[in-house]
């Protein structure tokens, strides 16, 4: 299947069609106690498309999906795409404000949500058709007729799905993608770099609502006629290891924070994981994590870097050509350039701003023309905001050119964390910047206290608890510094880059 | 430098970890299997560096799995 054309057909048809022709009864997904064949998956996708049609959802309408990883997620995503709608999968752990913002910004007219996400149910309104569901595909929507898998070929710029990622202002920003974008990623990275085969069993600890997980657990296994293992729960080390022991996946995808947590949870000197290799993206993989994982398991981790805008990984280490501490080489089909502040190419060995061009690039941001004009350049390259240097064709991460933080594979805008810190009764002003702990980037809070407040362990403990009860875990500062002043420009703007440690 | 389990547990409480969780931590089992998550782990490592004025390298940080490992590390570094 890797030789199929990636540009011409509906994404759902391209992913399901060849599998139905070749092996309709093969298991496509395993999740909890359920195994789902390609035929069952296609039938459910068709039923969901029929439901959308009967709900007066038309081509181009957005369909919001608030679902944990499960075969229902995959069937609904493919069904929406099959119908010509735009699937908008979002995290199951957002705040009520973020859900409302995304609903309004996307203009979604249909919502499918898990009954395990109570905040999603609160989005109901007369303008929105909504439906709750469980995680089991068997029996889902059986009252609707299935149909032969068919859809008109999309126009080249028709959208198939949209993902939301954290923006620098703290508000999520929509990144829409065309039908071909996931197929390009599956061909260029999944097939050409990872060499995914029909006999592979893929398991991703990163969820389907992230671009990384959407490739790992939806596009790559379906494109290659393989099978994927899904886990709806939180990716804690013990649960992940139990699933690996039970199902024996051949490829495991995760982020460095999770690899580090698995290492730290392992008391034995060796960890037997019979698989081909492991994959990491989402944040830079520290050399120490790579080395310790290799010592513990005997397995390589292929580290790479991708972005939601490019759909998936565009720089990666390759089997047999790994350099520890490097993000690797350009993935086939992607052009990489490093430029200085004026946009001129830098010399090899000199840090520069990373810009990337490839056929899986999002055409624009959603409702953000200024951001689009600033980030997506006329020659097809996109500014990533990362600083890299290149040596012998290998790329090494050297930081960010803005204030954004990438923690556990997820973006954090410092503004989000700072706004909450300022609501604490003892905090007069603050800034949040990155610090390195255990080789990984983490948020650190620099706090100016109000008069009469004393910087002591009791206050730090109080602020930590205040934050922990209001923010998602990955956003929580791990270090707190009490300072008399913050570095500022002449106009009073805080210079967060001076606080990076 | 002699370091006790109680001192390390007090440090955990200072970074806001749950009192009940800290009380139950066994010193010879990995913290990551006892509810100490990917936020608590680095926060504890940072607090330890500050209290005992030492630096934990990236590779050492992946070998410090239990409270007993941390005690041995601090005593070695002193």
From TrEMBL, chain A:
Q: Which GO terms describe its molecular function?
A: acid-thiol ligase activity; ATP binding; CoA-ligase activity
Task: Give GO terms for biological process.
Answer: secondary metabolite biosynthetic process
Give the top-rank taxon of the lineage listed in the UniProt record for this protein: Bacteria
Q: Does the keyword Ligase apply?
A: yes
**Alphabetical UniProt keywords:** Ligase
Q: Give every AMP-dependent synthetase/ligase domain span.
A: 20-366
InterPro entries from the xrefs?
AMP-bd_C, AMP-bd_C_sf, AMP-binding_CS, AMP-dep_synth/lig_dom, Benz_CoA_lig
Q: Which Gene3D superfamilies match?
A: 3.30.300.30, 3.40.50.12820, 3.40.50.980, Luciferase, Domain 3
Using the record's annotation, list all stretches that form the AMP-binding enzyme C-terminal domain: 416-493
The record ties this protein, via SUPFAM superfamilies, to:
Acetyl-CoA synthetase-like (SSF56801)
Ligase found in the keyword field? yes
Q: Which Pfam families match?
A: AMP-binding, AMP-binding_C
Q: Which PANTHER family match?
A: ACETYL-COA SYNTHETASE, ANTHRANILATE--COA LIGASE
Q: What name is this protein filed under?
A: Benzoate-CoA ligase
- In its UniProt entry, the species of origin is given as Trichlorobacter thiogenes
Q: What is the lineage of its organism?
A: Bacteria, Pseudomonadati, Thermodesulfobacteriota, Desulfuromonadia, Geobacterales
UniProtKB/TrEMBL annotation, chain B:
Question: Could you tell me which species this protein originates from?
Answer: Trichlorobacter thiogenes
**Pfam name, any one:** PP-binding
- The Carrier domain extends over 1-78
Gene3D superfamilies, sorted: ACP-like
Report the protein name in the record. Answer: Acyl carrier protein
Q: Which domain of life is it from?
A: Bacteria
């Amino acid at each position: 299947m890797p030789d199929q054309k990636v540009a011409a057909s509906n994404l759902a048809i391209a992913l399901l069609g060849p599998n139905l022709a070749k092996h309709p009864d093969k298991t496509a997904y395993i999740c909890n106690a359920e195994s789902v064949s390609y035929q069952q998956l296609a039938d459910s996708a068709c039923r969901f498309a029929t439901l959308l049609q009967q709900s007066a959802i038309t081509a181009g309408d957005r369909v919001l999906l608030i679902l944990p990883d499960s075969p229902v997620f995959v069937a609904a995503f493919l069904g929406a795409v099959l119908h010509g709608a735009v699937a908008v999968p979002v995290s199951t752990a957002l705040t009520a404000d973020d859900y409302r913002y995304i609903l309004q910004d996307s203009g979604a007219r249909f919502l499918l949500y898990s009954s395990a996400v109570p905040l999603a149910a609160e989005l109901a309104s007369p303008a929105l058709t909504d439906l709750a569901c469980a995680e089991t595909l068997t029996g889902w929507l059986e009252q609707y007729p299935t149909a032969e898998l068919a859809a008109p070929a999309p126009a080249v710029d028709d959208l198939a799905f949209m993902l939301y990622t954290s923006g620098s202002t703290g508000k999520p920003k929509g990144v829409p993608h065309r039908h071909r974008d996931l197929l390009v990623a599956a061909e260029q990275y999944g097939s050409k770099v990872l060499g995914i085969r029909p006999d592979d069993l893929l398991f991703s600890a990163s969820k389907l609502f992230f671009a990384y997980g959407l490739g790992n657990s939806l596009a790559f296994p379906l494109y290659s006629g393989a099978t994927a293992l899904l886990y709806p729960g939180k990716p804690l080390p013990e649960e992940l290891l139990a699933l690996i022991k039970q199902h024996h996946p051949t490829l495991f995808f995760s982020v460095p924070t999770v690899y580090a947590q698995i290492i730290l949870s392992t008391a034995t000197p060796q960890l037997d994981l019979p698989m081909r290799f492991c994959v990491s993206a989402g944040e830079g993989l520290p050399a120490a994590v790579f080395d310790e994982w290799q010592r513990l398991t005997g397995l390589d981790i292929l580290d790479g870097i991708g972005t939601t805008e490019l759909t998936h990984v565009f720089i990666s280490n390759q089997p047999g050509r790994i350099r520890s501490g490097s993000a690797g080489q350009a993935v086939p089909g992607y052009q990489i350039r490093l430029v200085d502040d004026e946009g001129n190419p830098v010399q090899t060995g000199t840090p520069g701003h990373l810009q990337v061009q490839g056929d899986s690039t999002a055409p624009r941001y959603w409702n953000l023309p200024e951001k689009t004009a600033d980030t997506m350049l006329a020659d097809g390259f996109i500014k990533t905001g990362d600083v890299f240097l290149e040596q012998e064709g290998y790329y090494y991460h050297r930081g960010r050119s803005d204030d954004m933080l990438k923690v556990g594979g997820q973006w954090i805008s410092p503004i989000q964390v700072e706004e909450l810190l300022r609501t604490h009764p003892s905090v007069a002003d603050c800034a949040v910047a990155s610090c390195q702990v255990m080789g990984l980037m983490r948020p650190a809070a620099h706090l100016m206290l109000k008069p009469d407040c004393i910087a002591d362990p009791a206050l730090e403990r109080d602020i930590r608890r205040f934050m922990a009860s209001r923010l998602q875990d990955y956003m929580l500062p791990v270090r707190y510094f009490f300072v008399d002043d913050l570095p500022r420009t002449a106009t009073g703007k805080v210079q967060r880059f001076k606080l990076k440690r | 430098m002699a370091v006790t389990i109680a001192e390390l547990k007090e440090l955990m409480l200072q970074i806001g970890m749950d009192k009940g969780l800290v009380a139950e931590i066994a010193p010879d089992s990995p913290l990551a299997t006892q509810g100490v998550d990917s936020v608590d782990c680095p926060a504890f490592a940072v607090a330890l560096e500050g209290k005992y004025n030492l630096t934990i390298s990236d590779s050492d940080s992946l070998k410090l799995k239990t409270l007993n490992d941390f005690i041995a590390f601090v005593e070695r570094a002193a």
